[in-house]
Design a protein that fits this description.
Rossmann fold; six-stranded mixed beta sheet; alpha/beta; five-stranded antiparallel beta sheet; 327 residues; Chorismate Mutase Domain, subunit A; 12 helices
Length: 327
Amino acid sequence: MMQDFIYKLEKLGPFENHPILAVAVSGGADSLALTLLAHEYAKEKSGKIIALTVDHKLREGSSKEAHELNELLTKLGIEHHILTWDRNSNISSNIQSKARNSRYQLLTDFCNKHQILHLLVGHHKNDQIETFMMRLERGSGVSGLASMNDINYLNKVRILRPLLNTPPEKLRNYLKERKISWAEDPSNLNEKFTRIKFRMMLKNYDDLSLDRIFNTSITMRRANYSIKKNTYAQMVKLLKIYKEGYATIDIKLLLAIAQEESFRILSDVLTTIGGSEYPPRYENIQRLYDKINSGSFRAHTLGSCKLIIKNKLLLVYKETKKDLYQE
């Protein structure tokens, strides 16, 4: 297990000669196994890890579990910090998404404050399969079906997922061999959450079917990389973004390139100009493209942006209460 982990982690490098790694740990089996593996790796490199737990205080007993985890990690010689979400009491909707955003904000803020470049998170093979299936149901395009990357950049921090190819059973067995117990989050059984619904559904799949889904997600990731590379090459030819906060797209060139590349350009521009956290749904991008291609396009609103045609260019600007380009 250790040698396999070292191989996977070092593929996500480079790292410093004596690396300092932050590890997000909830106390569940996956993140706890990651913490112990990273600790052994860092010791071999004369480095260290710093384990970080975010207490969202969304359920009774979360603070007690965080402090019990602190006792365990301290006994194992691992530095551990508990970060608390100072939640606005008025937040009542979409709490899971907001908790996730706050978690990464707290984690990366800590890393920046302590000059830590790398943050390891414990997503594993089944998490990747669940993500793929959730996005497939939503009708995502290639970018969405590529699912989670093993390397992301957020708030000047490298988010690393060295366990994406690792089955969760392997992580639990690793802890059992070391007689380390872990906490079970009761929300992992609550089927009101979409991910948990898919998790329960996938329990009915055999290993071969799960492997095929996982391999498809890898294929989509490769395809996404190729499309992204080609898209960037096309962007420099047909897209201009202005410091005033709007963009123009050459419609003739947009319609001349591969559709998937056109979809990606429209999605990226709308996300950038609109300032949205997530891109518009793939089906909405398709409809927008079809309107432009048919010649019936006049004006459109999507992703907090207004789109109009002026002088054979698609003008994209942030939607406001007063239309700045009314004629």
